[in-house]
Amino acid sequence: MKKDKNQAESGVRDEDLETLVHQVLREDGKVFPVTEEDISNLEAEVDPNEVKPIDPARLLARVRGETSKEEHDQVVPLFGQVPNQVQEDMLAMAARNGGQITEDMRRQMEEDRANAEKQAEDQKGR
Amino acid sequence: MSSLTSSAVRQPSAKVEDDDLTLILRMACKGSDRKDAEDALVIFFKRHHRLFKAFAERNNYRSLGFDPEDFVLHTFHKAFEKAHTFDAPTGLSPERLLKKVQTWLFEIAKNEFLMELRKGLNQSEETMDPDLLTPPNREDIEECVLTGKAAAVRTFLDGLPEGDRQLLETSMNFYDYKAKKAVIPADILEGLANALATTPEGIKQRRKRLLQRLKEHLEKT
């Protein structure tokens, strides 16, 4: 049954307001369709052919409790966009558990690095 | 009487020409023939999934933190698990059967949506509130047409910031036909508040203000 409230009263009752919003959203396919009519409304509003299809392999992988290659590839490497130097600094910080490097430690590290570089140079020279 | 037990005649393997009922029956028999059930699922998925993706993209559930493709995959995964629950009268025309299947899938999709909202609360069980899932009776749908106002509502909604529009649209998924307003269960309200980075009370107040603004907008037009 349809009621034309507009002709009966100039104001809008709160009750009618929510009903009206819901009705508009149903007609526009913007709330979950619950009736066959809602689905027809939705179909009139969208064109599924314009939607990029999803690879069914992803669904099969889920159903089988696996991770599909596509989903695996979608995982963004944590350090993917970070410059190497920053990445090294972050890894080093993580390695020392966020703590500060003492002067002794730094001296030892620089010594180790110098030795490693010298060793690498020597190997190249041979 | 369930169509699943009466009308579908099983052929050796799932085929693209199979109707939905046959495919759902094959999925329901996954315990006895897993490969056939999965083949049927792929055909069924290819046939239907784009409407669901279009729906999810259109309603921008991404702004609530939902990935449309993930939402669709969840829905069809659940449909595969629950294939045995599908029921429809026998002798339906292909068009009516299609609508029955779509309605069933959207019930599942809605439930998945509710579960996603609950995830932030570590409550991933299926909803126990049948009113949220059961289609309303036809007599409950008393259309209240305020002539000429629908266009004004659309104009108002289109002019809202994304977050506000999303809030109103999402809340209307909980519209109660008897109460004639959205009745959002407390746990869903909390999940929605988490998704929108606010509090349940914040959601209520924001929604109330939006409806008040809409009311003023309609009274002006």
List descriptors.
heterodimer; A: 126 residues; mainly alpha; 7 helices; elongated; disordered N terminus; B: 221 residues; two-stranded antiparallel sheet; 9 helices; 3 strands; 3% strand
Could you list the spans of chain A in which at least 5 consecutive residues all have pLDDT below 50?
Answer: 1-9, 75-83
Shape of chain A: elongated
Largest interface: A-B, 52 and 58 residues
Query: What percent of residues of chain B adopt helix (DSSP H or I)?
Result: 55-70%
Oligomer: heterodimer
If you compute it from the alpha carbons, what radius of gyration of chain B comes out, rounded to the nearest whole angstrom?
20 Å
> Counting H and I runs of at least 4 residues, what is the number of helices of chain A?
7
What is the terminal-to-terminal distance of chain A?
Answer: 95 Å
* Number of helices, where a helix is a run of at least 4 consecutive DSSP H or I residues of chain B: 9
Q: What is the H-and-E element order of chain A?
A: EHHHHHHH
Integer average pLDDT of chain B: 83
- Identify the overall geometry of chain B: elongated
Summing up helix and strand content along with how strands pair, one would put the structural category of chain B as mainly alpha
Number of strands of chain B: 3
Largest sheet report of chain A: none
Work out the strand percent of chain A. under 5%
Structural class of chain A: mainly alpha
Query: What do the pLDDT scores of chain A average to?
Result: 74
Stretches of chain B where pLDDT is under 50 for at least 5 consecutive residues are 121-130
